[in-house]
Amino acid sequence: MSDADPTPPAGQVARSGRGPRAALRNTRFRKLYTALVLSSFGDWLGFLATTALATQLVDTFASKAYATGGVLVFRLLPAVLFGPLAGAYADRWDRRRTMVLCDVLRFGLFLSIPLVGSVATRNSSLLYLLAASFLIETVSLFWIPAKEASVPNIVSREQLEGANQLTLIATYGSAPVAAGVFALLSLLSRALGSGFDYFRTGPVDLALYVNAATFLFAALTVYRLDLPSPKSADRPPGQAAPSVFASLREGFAFMGGTPLARGLLVGMLGALAAGGAIIALGRLFAESVLAGGNAAYGLLFGSIFLGIAAGVALGPKALGDLSRRRVFGPSIVGAGASLIVMSLVPNLFLATVATFLVGAFAGVAYVVGITLLGLEIEDELRGRMFGLVQSLMRIDLLLVTATTPFVAGFIGTRSIDLPGDGPAAISVNGVSVVLFVGGLLGIVVGIVSFRQMDDRPGITLRSDLMRRLRRTPPAPTYAGTFIAFEGGEGAGKSTQLGLLETWLVERGHEVVVTREPGATATGARIRALLLDPAAQVGPRAEALLYAADRAQHVAEVVRPALDRGAVVVTDRYLDSSLAYQGAGRELAVDEVARLSRWATEGLRPDLVVLLDIDPVIGLGRAGSEPDRIEAESLAFHARVREGFVELAESDPDRYLVLSADRPVDAVRDAIRGRVAVAVPEPAPATEVAPA
After folding, report:
1. Domain boundaries, the chain
2. Which of 19, 127, 305, 330 lies 20 to 30 Å (CA to CA) from residue 613?
3. Residue 170 CA from chain centroid, whole number
4. Are 481 and 605 in contact (CB under 8 A)?
5. Per-residue pLDDT tens over the stretch 446-486
6. Cα(579)–Cα(640) distance, rounded to whole angstroms?
7. Do 259-415+426-475 and 15-227 have the same topology in CATH?
8. CA torsion sign, 216 to 218 to 221 to 226?
9. Whether 10 contacts 128, CB under 8 Å
């Protein structure tokens, strides 16, 4: 797609760089993000308004506490009852319609609270408030997995992490904005109350009306958005959909039987538990350990959320090219270790720093976990996975915040005398003990997650981290060098590949020249089918055939040559599938990439030489008898060219882009200059002395 129109049709993913800014250039994501901001703002404003209203409907201190607690319980209870079910429906229903319907329902429910309160008794109003809170949160459970499962379908793989950063910033960053708006609306209601009885008797009603309006605007925004339906909805006529409970069983089985999903779930629950323990015990810790008051508690509470914001916003950039599977577990270990430090230091400054680090590591783990869920889980299961994760996270938070204060209170504050004649003793505080044990559990959870998800066995985590600190590229797991030539038809790849082979052999390298498709016996049969002008091959079948050829090619030719130290030079590789089947055939690029990553076990070239050429010129060189791909339309080949260029722009350090219009010798010299840097000098032959 061109820069002027960066948003492709439904089902095709826009590809224009990486990071939050690149995600916001995607028109469809920008619209969805607007709806998310409005919904998140409405959630926080509704939380403040409903809890404030609950305290105004009763009189005594105990009643106010119970009413507030009741609102919180009724907001958390739906996750326990309906969380996984909501995720299953996100995989069955049209997601755009689901989100619109949910926002309209939330609009109506929030609007009804002040209307019912204006005519009902205080007790009846409180009961209706609790029921409405339960229904609002139930509806939200269906909205969240529908939104989360839609994002990977409208942004590219490179943009997904940035999109998730923006999502989390909107989710938590809208809280202080909502608090400020709530305060202003409260002041405005008080001013209006001097002239209108309605606002004097219902001081939070104005906030509820504004809150309802945010969901109506969110519904209108999503309604105008083009979102792809879940693939489970695209069944052939006559094929029955599985039951909801069968879908749930499939989701639970996948989560329990897949190491990646299992590691993500365990890790995210562990990271959330660490943050929840601080939120639940922060006030007691500030008072009993730090000998502080509300100011110390406020500092700790603010530090945990400031740390989460820093981890979400800055973590992905700091991680750079480190494998996200590898850093997820260590992030949780970092949160657990920081929690242990916090539990052991009775110093406000050090405790504040440790609390900030707990939040920062948890924030990194959360954004990485959400990104991996979107990238690695198929669309047919994605809604169920997000629904299950969201549900279990809320249950986890509920259990942590509800039980840890009781455990700390049961342990209490004790003094244990040490053996000996002196009066030496150790003071044991239940809060510190619970936080310490929580930190240990966090470390264990992080280690388990790392072992489940590590995708670079044989390379120590320490060496990976040191490489990142030195800003050097990741070390390959093979001894050779892998170079791929890419480009459109008639770009001159074969000519330049032959020149490079001759030059490398003269320098003393073992060189293996290969191609795709057709480098193996199996691949030759696939090639004949793929290029046969008479063959009728659908876009998805074509992508699968290329992936099959590539899997055999890597297993039989490429990987063995790299393992023995050869320089492998291939005419086409993975990027051709992304450009031809992704951009050219207009398939979702992230799905094509996932298919090829699976086929090649993640093997990618050390250097990609892209010979860029105008399709009109290139096709003119193709000859009088074009094959099935060469015979495609000029528009198809123009999309292929754009696809190649965008891939190169997304990872410029790994690509050498050259104009194929330049003289052959000039292109040859530019390639040699870059390859001389990428390919180490061959080791000198060892002479064996005569006996």
Report:
1. 15-227, 259-415+426-475, 481-678
2. 19
3. 15
4. no
5. 898 888 887 776 677 887 787 777 666 565 667 788 999 99
6. 5
7. yes
8. negative
9. no
